[in-house]
Amino acid sequence: MTGTTLQPDRLTLSYAVPQLVGGEELPVGPTFTAVDPSTGRGWAEVAAGTAADADLAVDAAARAFASWRHTSLDTRQALLWEVAERLSASAEWWPRLLATENGRAIREAGLIDVPTAAEIFRYFSGIVRDLHGRTLPCGPGAHVATSPRPLGVVAALVPWNSPLISVAHKLAPALAAGNTVVVKPSELASVATVEFVRLVQDLFPPGVVNVVTGLGPEVGRALVSNPRVAKISFTGGTRTGRSILGDAAAGLTPALMELGGKGSMVVCADADLDTVTEDVLTGIFAANGEVCFAASRVLAHREIHDALLDRVCERAERIVVGDALDPATQLGPLVSRTHRDQVAHRVAAAVGEGAEVRAGGGVPELPAELAGGSYFRPTVLSSADGATSASAEEFFGPVLTVEVWDGEDEVVERVNRVDYGLANGVWSSELGQGLRIADRLDSGMVWVNTWFATPLGQPQGGVKASGFGREGAAETLLEYTSTKVVHASLDRARPPMWV
Ligand code: NAD
Q1: Given the CA of residue 339, which atom of ligand 1 is nearest to it?
Q2: Residues near ligand 1 with C-beta < 6 Å?
């Protein structure tokens, strides 16, 4: 492992970040401090919203829905496209903010987050023109037609790991379908979301897009419990998802749940090791391993297990760890000290259960100026039989577990044994084998000979403890509409039932 040094041009906001409701900034009362995970120092003050603020935002969104629901598809198309244009036009501005906020290495924030968020808006701008109902052939005496109706106010709750992308995945389809939205970002990454809404909100009538900030159990909970919320769209941890569904039950509020993951890579004996090695490194160390789709578990066939483990460990040790704002950094700090300590604790627990640290395994030695940061070394654990908690639990950090397998039935059973079912993958030079194993893995997504490939139009989402609902695809529009049918009789003749 090598390190980088503290960058001098750090971001510090001179204003308190407000909540945006009904096209206005709410007056800022109490605030909480946003901490730069590269240094451990505060860099912004953010409005600590309350349950009353969440209610205000839902009121504003409900008022705006009355007319926004009737906007034409071409209007929505043009507005969503303009959102993407504004994002792209300000692309150079975002990476520093994103890297400061959650520790994402600045080279990735520029390369991935901003273009992906813009692309999500362009995708839904394109497909919204195809939002239509059907007529049903029910005979010459009837005219039967369905139409997709917007639901109303959507409460969009997002995590801290990729705020721009997560917000885009919720806002674009919800708005395209004619809903209004209240966004609640994570308390660990609120600024990017507020600044994004500030950038685009004048495109929309007041109240169509709102953002409230503050603690999840207070503001988030008030939002999902509000009886005027018509749909909850949540991305976050499985435990939080369960709690939200409990609150949603009282109002019978439907929900889309994008939850945690424990991605497994199944590597067959005939796989191309050069490609696999690159995919393993990307799968677990991109975005600091703080990705729901992360490949945190590799199951390598016995014939290539040792060679692959050696290659991955050698490369992991060379990863450049340091200040997220340094363009040379390949792995930034984890989002907070608390989260870093949880990752360290999970590694220690797995080692106590029999896993062996083969690379990394702890806090790196970095220059004194980065001592306040929440860094963790790229870590590879070996756990041949997959019997430790490192093979089952989501760490949400740069920690990979490598296991060994012999038979196809065995490896399929071991992958499917975990509670999660978000993303898995198979590497084989024989496509038939790859597809056969892919078909047997229980997850919403399976990649064959690649990882992280998520072109727009390809549904994203999980099964089991990874949640339900799909984002990023045409079917996502259905998540934000309900089907209404109108059946008109063209005939006055009635069956002779009452004579
Ligand atoms: P989290 O569950 O702690 O928080 C997510 C959001 O929910 C935040 O905005 C938070 O303030 C809010 N919240 C917390 N408690 C709440 C409550 N009781 N009621 C309402 N809202 C509440 O998740 P996190 O730590 O921010 O993010 C990490 C998790 O997100 C990981 O488990 C990761 O796998 C998951 N994730 C999933 C996907 C996916 O697409 N499946 C994508 C990204 C992240």
Answers
A1: 25
A2: 157-161, 184-187, 216-217, 220-221, 224, 235-237, 240, 243-244, 258-261, 292, 394, 396, 422, 462
Burial of 287 (0-12, 13-18, 19+ CB in 10 A): buried
- For residues 253 and 238, the answer to whether their CB atoms sit within 8 Å is no
Q: Which of 77, 86, 160, 164 is nearest to 125 (CA)?
A: 77
Atom 36 of ligand 1: nearest residue by CA position? 236
For residue 138, indicate whether it is catalytic.
no
Residue 8 has pLDDT above 90, yes or no: no
Closest C-alpha residue for ligand 1 atom 24: 159
- On whether the CB atoms of residues 398 and 376 are closer than 8 A, the answer is yes
- Residue 484 catalytic? no
For residue range 311-329, list pLDDT tens digits in order: 999 999 999 999 999 999 9
CB 278 within 8 A of CB 296: no
Instruction: Write the residue with the smallest CA distance to atom 8 of ligand 1.
Output: 186
**Global pTM value:** 0.97
Q: Is 170 a catalytic residue?
A: yes
What residue ranges in 10-81 does DSSP mark as E strands?
16-17, 20-21, 24-25, 31-36, 41-47
398-449 pLDDT per residue, tens: 999 999 999 999 999 999 999 999 999 999 999 999 999 999 999 999 999 9
In 139-292, which residue ranges form alpha helices assigned H by DSSP?
Answer: 163-176, 191-200, 221-225, 238-251, 273-285
pLDDT tens for each residue of 107-165: 999 899 999 999 999 999 999 999 999 999 999 999 999 999 999 999 999 999 999 99
Distance from C-alpha of 346 to C-alpha of 349, rounded to nearest angstrom: 5
At residue 3, does pLDDT exceed 80?
no
Q: How far is the CA of 169 from the centre of ligand 1 (A)?
A: 14
